[in-house]
Amino acid sequence: MGMPCFSNINSSLFLSSCHLLPGLSCAHIMELKCTMQQYAWGKYGQSSEVALLNSSGNPDFVIDDAVPYAELWMGTHPNGPSVLKSSNQQLVDWIHAHPESLGAKAKEKFGLQLPFLFKVLSVNQALSIQAHPDKVFFIMSQRSMSALSVKETSIAPSKHTTCFFNF
User: Running DSSP on this structure, what letter comes out for residue 108?
Assistant: First the structure.
């Protein structure tokens, strides 16, 4: 069993469960409504790929050329959960109803959580690089920096990041 496949079909965002659940064909695709994040560093209006992607999957969305559209989140993060377009069911609820979709190793390590947050970024200004440590390093560094203010109180589950530019 593989991980969910995200694909861009006619500029709409889809989650394919064909590799997740036995008995489902690859023709079984669930379209997602994703969450946009607006940050000052994002591209404005029609120049933002994030805004364009969101408008192609959400006919009610109107792009405002005065607004920076920075990130499109696909996942189960509580600050921007994706929902299945056909039912408005949150992706996290669908995963809880279909725990086999995560696979045994992912469930063992992360429980019934999607172990990543997929983001599309539309960047207008240079950004700092973010690194998410594993849990052991995070705990050890918090102990050694206890006098400092640490903004993050938890860690991101992923250890590996792949970046794609100009694709």
Answer: H
Summarize pLDDT for 61-74 with one digit per residue, the tens.
Answer: 999 999 999 999 99
CA distance 142 to 40: 29
- pTM (2 d.p.): 0.66
> What are the sequence ranges of the domains in the chain?
5-127
What are the tens digits of pLDDT across the range 105-129? Answer: 889 988 998 888 999 999 999 887 7
Confirm if 92 and 76 have CB atoms less than 8 A apart.
yes
Cα four-point dihedral sign 54, 166, 81, 12: positive
The H or E element containing residue 33 is strand 29-33
How many Cα atoms are found within 13 Å in the side-chain-facing hemisphere of 116?
A: 14
